[in-house]
Amino acid sequence: PPDTAALGRSTWTFLHTTAAYYPLSATPMHQSNMRSLLSSLSVLYPCGWCAEDFARDMKANPPDVSGREGLMRWLCERHNEVNGKLGKERFECTAEKLGERWKDGPKD
Ligand code: FAD
Q1: 103 CB neighbour count, 10 Å cutoff
Q2: Where are the domains of the chain?
Q3: Could you read off the pLDDT of 21-53 as tens digits, one per residue?
Q4: In the structure, what pLDDT confidence band is assigned to residue 106 with cuts at 50, 70 and 90?
Q5: What is the CATH architecture assignment of 13-103?
Q6: Which of 63, 87, 101, 103 is placed for a possible disulfide with 20 were both Cys, Cβ 3.0 to 4.6 Å?
C-alpha cells in the first residue's frame, strides 16, 4: 500500500501551491478545470478511506473555485478537517498565513 503520510504531504503541497497561483479571479475555464481536479481526486486518490471522507466533505462543502483567495481558504478548511480527524493542529486559514506558507514566505 502507498505511504499515506508521504502521499498526503505531497498532495497537500501540490494542492495548496496550485491554489496559491490560481487566478485572482478565475475564468469559467479555470473554474471547471479546478472542479474536475478536485472531484477526480475524490475518486482517484490512492487511499480509499481518505478519498471517501474527502468526497463526503466536498459534498457538504462545495469548493469555492471563484478565485485564489476563496480557493485557498476552502482548501485550508478541508485540510483542517483532516487535521482534526487525525488529531493534528489546525492551521489559521487567513490570507496572510496561507500566503506566507504557500507562496510569498514570511515578511522581511
Ligand atoms: P500535512 O497534513 O501533510 O501538511 C503538510 C503541511 O501543510 C504542514 O506541515 C503545514 O505547513 C501545512 N498545513 C497544515 N494544515 C494546513 C491547512 N489547513 N491549510 C494549509 N496548510 C496546512 N491521512 C490519513 O491518515 N487519513 C485520511 O483520511 C487522510 N485523508 C486525506 C485526504 C486528502 C485529500 C489528503 C490530501 C491527505 C489525506 N491524508 C489522510 C494525509 C494527511 O492529511 C497528511 O498529509 C499526513 O498525515 C502527513 O501529515 P503531516 O503532519 O506531515 O502534514
Answers
A1: 14
A2: 13-103
A3: 999 999 999 999 999 999 999 999 999 999 999
A4: confident
A5: Up-down Bundle (1.20)
A6: 103
Three cell numbers, residue 82: 483532516
Q: Pocket residues for ligand 1 (CB within 6 Å)?
A: 4-5, 8-9, 11-12, 16, 45, 49-50, 53-54, 76, 79-80, 82-83, 86, 88, 91, 101
Q: How far is the CA of 18 from the centre of ligand 1 (A)?
A: 15
What is the chain's mean pLDDT, rounded? 96
